[in-house]
Design brief:
Blueprint lengths: L8 H10 L9 H20 L4 H17 L2 H7 L2 H16 L20 E3 L1 E3 L9 E9 L10 E6 L19 E5 L5 E7 L4 E2 L5 H8 L5 E2 L2 E7 L6 E7 L18 E2 L1 E4 L2 H6 L6 E5 L2 E2 L21
Parallel strand pairs: 1-5, 2-6, 3-13, 3-14, 10-11
Antiparallel strand pairs: 3-6, 4-5, 4-9, 7-8, 9-10, 12-13
Amino acid sequence: MTVKTMETQQVVELLEKVAGLNQTGGNDRVKTIIHRLMHDIFQIVEDLDVTPEEFWSAVYYINDLGKNGEAALLAPGLGMDHYLDIRMDAADEQAGLAGGTPRTIEGPLYVAGAPLSEGFARMDDGTQDGETMIIIGQVTDQHGQPVADAIVDIWHADLKGAYSYFDPSQSEYNLRRRIKTDAEGRYAAQSIIPSGYGCPPEGSTQALLNLLGRHGNRPAHIHYFVSKAGYKHLTTQINLAGDEYTYDDFAFATREELVVDAVRVEDAAAAEQYGLNKPFTQVEFNIQLVSTDKADLQSRHERQRALES
């Protein structure tokens, strides 16, 4: 179809009315965004000759997406979360705040209020017979000086690729802890090696990925928030090296600096230091924070998070 309507007065006026630009009430920022959004959707319909059948299929897909509660899963799968990171990285560069440990996406499965420990925490509840993992690391500033009393907030999936709170079979705050660094900026945690996981196979996200010829899998990974007053808040995660999807993450969260080796430790004396009597796997992740006096950069951005008031 070669019909072109976007420049007609009829469509121009329709878009203004849709966005409430002809009304005095409402929110100007929302009006501007909706006007641009609907203009671009109309333009897609025109440029790609979207049929009514295709249009209504998309509408009902959005209905299903909402019923499945998968909008926050689809967003990273379509690169939206990673794009926001790209923009924030560019803003940091422009403001002279680049450097430190790279950020990467938060994901939708954080739960606020995990137990707080000093220096060391046991993260797993002992109900799953997984490989014991010891996570160690040091938090420093951009000059390599230790950052004491930083809060290292860690969460990850279990052996099934499921997260506590969202998986009611797990105990409260299983595999979720906050750890305050010691005088040398060090933290440590005992847990189990997490599993990677995929999107629900019958869900809305995977349905779209199938149409794109893409998989919906994530590698084994561990999430972090790291914060202290006077430093830029860090949202990041590490991928464990060797996973099939380490460099093929459907959520685009992998960054080279955030791929960490999981090292098998057979030494009995090393195990004894952590109260263990068997081999374990050690993961070391050192974190560098960037100082800033900008209060808005010292805390995580606002979004809907479980149990966060």
